[in-house]
């Protein structure tokens, strides 16, 4: 049987973009996935839109938190529910290219690594490309990650079978994803990067991604 990928997506007032994020997952050439959407207290009608997908695609699930708890807690709730061998992350305003999962899974099998990542594009609110984050190093050690975070969360994929366990994001104010990557490679593993664009990071003033830096929990 093909290995399943669990895709973790926190939602916080993302009604304008969540449909595009979900469709970018549905358009994957690799069909063996589950998408776990975690509502972190949205008030903008995002969840009404999400429910239209739940009725038509059994691979999509929704978890609702009782109150806003921030992206790390939301992602961790998704990880707890995950059934897949592989865990990947996609914020509700970002996108994946269609071959993202297929190419990354093949890459991980070849390199025998528990953590991989890729290059990605930056897009504006309208979806126009405004930049690109390429990979300068394709092999990242613990020492490398201590200096800077080389891994974009929307591109990361974790092999829980390789690790022998699920691992969670630390409940800290900033850089929770960086904390998780550090925990993984600190065990002596190497993170491998694909210098190919497989995702698109949306830059907007009030995005999930910007809010992780700028406001309250989402920083």
From TrEMBL:
Which Pfam families does this entry report, sorted A to Z? Glycos_transf_2 (PF00535)
Q: Which residue intervals define the domain Glycosyltransferase 2-like in the entry?
A: 6-134
Q: Which InterPro entries match?
A: Glyco_trans_2-like, Nucleotide-diphossugar_trans
GO MF terms, alphabetically ordered? hexosyltransferase activity
**Could you identify this protein by its name?**
Glycosyltransferase 2-like domain-containing protein
User: Which species does the entry assign this protein to?
Assistant: marine metagenome
């Amino acid at each position: 049987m093909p290995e399943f990928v669990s895709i973790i997506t926190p939602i916080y007032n993302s009604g304008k973009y969540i449909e595009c994020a979900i469709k970018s997952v549905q358009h994957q050439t690799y069909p063996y996935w589950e998408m776990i959407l975690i509502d972190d207290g949205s008030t903008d009608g995002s969840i009404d839109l999400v429910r239209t997908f739940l009725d038509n695609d059994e691979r999509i699930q929704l978890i609702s938190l009782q109150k806003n708890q921030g992206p790390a807690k939301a992602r961790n709730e998704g990880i707890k529910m995950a059934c897949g061998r592989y865990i990947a992350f996609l914020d509700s305003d970002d996108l994946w290219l269609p071959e993202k999962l297929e190419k990354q899974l093949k890459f991980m099998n070849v390199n025998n690594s528990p953590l991989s990542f890729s290059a990605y594009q930056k897009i504006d609110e309208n979806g126009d490309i405004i930049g690109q984050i390429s990979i300068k190093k394709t092999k990242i050690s613990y020492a490398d990650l201590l200096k800077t975070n080389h891994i974009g969360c929307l591109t990361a994929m974790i092999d829980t079978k390789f690790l022998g366990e699920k691992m969670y994001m630390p409940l800290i104010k900033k850089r929770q994803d960086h904390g998780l990557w550090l925990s993984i490679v600190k065990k002596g593993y190497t993170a491998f990067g694909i210098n190919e664009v497989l995702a698109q990071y949306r830059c907007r003033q009030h995005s999930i991604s910007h809010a992780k830096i700028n406001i309250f929990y989402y920083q």
